[in-house]
Amino acid sequence: MIQYSNLATTGAAGSSSCTDIRANCAQMSSYCNVPPYSTVMSQQCRRTCRLCT
């Protein structure tokens, strides 16, 4: 099971929708496209999973 820390990081300057809300998204990036983790990752690690527009 994936454990997340509660620290937040921000995305690109001026982009409120491009954020990672967990501090360890970079370490968990391999889970971006792996079910069942992809849903959680897309919600909590948008920047790391390259889901920003």
TrEMBL record:
Q: What Pfam family does this protein match (any one)?
A: ShK
Protein name in the entry = ShKT domain-containing protein
What pairs make up the disulfide bonds?
C18-C52
Q: What keywords sit in the KW lines?
A: Disulfide bond
Looking at the keywords, is Disulfide bond present?
yes
Regions that span the bilayer: none
**Disulfide bond among keywords:** yes
Query: What highest taxon heads this organism's lineage?
Result: Eukaryota
Q: Which residues form the ShKT domain?
A: 18-52
Recorded hits in SMART domains, A to Z, give: ShKT
